[in-house]
Amino acid sequence: MTSTLKAPGARQGKAAPKDRLAGTGTLFRLGLRRERHALPAWLLANAALLGGTAAAYGAAFTDAEARAAAIDRSESALLRALNGAPAGDGIGSLAVTDTFTATTTLASLMAVAMVLRQTRQNDESGRAELLASTAVGRHAPLLAALLLGVAACAALVPVLALALALGGLPVAGSVAAAAAIAATGLVFAAVATMTAQLWPSTTASTWDAILVIFLVFLPRAIGDALGGVPAGGLGVSRGWISWISPVTWAQEIRPFHGDRWVLLVPLVALSVPIAAQGFRLSTKRDPGSSVIDTGKGPAAASPSLRGPWSLGRRLYRTAMKAWVAGSILGFLCAGLLGAGDDASAVAMADLVAIVAVCHAAHVLAGLRSEETTGGLAMTLAGRAGRGTWLLARLGHGAAGLAAVVLAAGLGASLGTGLRSGDLGGGLAETLAVSLVQTTAALAFAGLAVAAFGALPRLFLPLLWAGPVATALLAVAASEPDAGPVAGLTAVAAILAALVLGALGTVAFGRRDVGG
């Protein structure tokens, strides 16, 4: 005869809520340590963009006439679609309006990166299963990741407010602007908790979150472009579709012109049910798996994939198609909305430069990801050498960059032609300006490759600072009458890209893989 003796206090059935969150604090601190380089880079990049623009506007728009000329730009539907219209005529309103799309996008991408690096990347690398085997609660990893995203957005408030206040702007308006940007990022930190559960890879989860960011920004852009501008150019009578977007709620806080703090409440409130849905989805899968099962590929690779060049083509082909299609459609709409004046031409050229650098950053980020996840080590275990692997990746990235920029130029030219009735009139000029913008992306890529070879741990923070620097410097290289200056700048950028790329390749050959 045998009997079973239960231990005192043994738990039966479901774990207590406290047990499901065990270890959250430890994982949160671990996340802060992992992001100790990346998080400051995100914060400083956003502060440089916003604070630099405010300082530049303070020096440029010194009188009411200059500010009135800047406000008149809101009559362009393209510029309204990009940034909206300023609510006031002060330097603060102008600077925040003209950078709002860029700064909120940066804040959103930062929040998404913070969450996905602690969730889906852990699933992909196997760390999630290791954590699940320890005394860590079921929801602790996701909660710690969400708290890290919230902390990153909260850190934006003092950093951005200080950047604006140092430019001589009122403190209350500076804090309101920073809070509006941070609250927008908070919404997408919650979105990332959902995308992390849906897809089996970090790349797919990131692109899903980026798609949501685009779809959230789109109604605001359409509503503002179709809305009317009252006399004086201040504000815009937004269409109803604008109010679907949380970005509109953030913009309607109107920093430096009313400071409507109450609109922060719906932004924070929206984040709660989205994050709750992410936690619900996390219970529908096991650690290391995903809600959406994409299936397994064939056991053996085809002959067309047996080499770094063919493998790189396979890895980048889907993303390249998405970039090309998005560039054509996006710049087609921009061309249709443009006013045909110099301001619209400059804005279009700046957009091409930013898109080109963002594409280069996306491709180059795959270098470090492949190295840290072990894919590079497996590739180098075969016949491929380091130089061949790196050149293959950079070659596909350069081809994709050219395709994206040409697609952007074609879309912009087609949109402008449809609006003006002259389809082929400005094609050559538009493509020429687009190709000049490509050289800025090449120079940035060369610098990034040098960092990848010499400073691999700082590679990603430096990489994503590129779009910010491009947004600050693009105007200088995109004036319609730049002429020979633009040509010399392009030649210098290509030479810089070649030299920096060569230095990065040499440095990569002399360091440890995974360092």
UniProtKB/TrEMBL annotation:
<feature type="transmembrane region" description="Helical">
    <location>
        <begin position="431"/>
        <end position="452"/>
    </location>
</feature>
<feature type="transmembrane region" description="Helical">
    <location>
        <begin position="39"/>
        <end position="60"/>
    </location>
</feature>
<feature type="transmembrane region" description="Helical">
    <location>
        <begin position="388"/>
        <end position="411"/>
    </location>
</feature>
<feature type="transmembrane region" description="Helical">
    <location>
        <begin position="140"/>
        <end position="165"/>
    </location>
</feature>
<keyword id="KW-0812">Transmembrane</keyword>
<protein>
    <recommendedName>
        <fullName>ABC transporter permease</fullName>
    </recommendedName>
</protein>
<feature type="transmembrane region" description="Helical">
    <location>
        <begin position="322"/>
        <end position="339"/>
    </location>
</feature>
<keyword id="KW-1133">Transmembrane helix</keyword>
<feature type="transmembrane region" description="Helical">
    <location>
        <begin position="345"/>
        <end position="367"/>
    </location>
</feature>
<feature type="transmembrane region" description="Helical">
    <location>
        <begin position="171"/>
        <end position="192"/>
    </location>
</feature>
<feature type="transmembrane region" description="Helical">
    <location>
        <begin position="484"/>
        <end position="509"/>
    </location>
</feature>
<feature type="transmembrane region" description="Helical">
    <location>
        <begin position="100"/>
        <end position="119"/>
    </location>
</feature>
<keyword id="KW-0472">Membrane</keyword>
<feature type="transmembrane region" description="Helical">
    <location>
        <begin position="459"/>
        <end position="478"/>
    </location>
</feature>
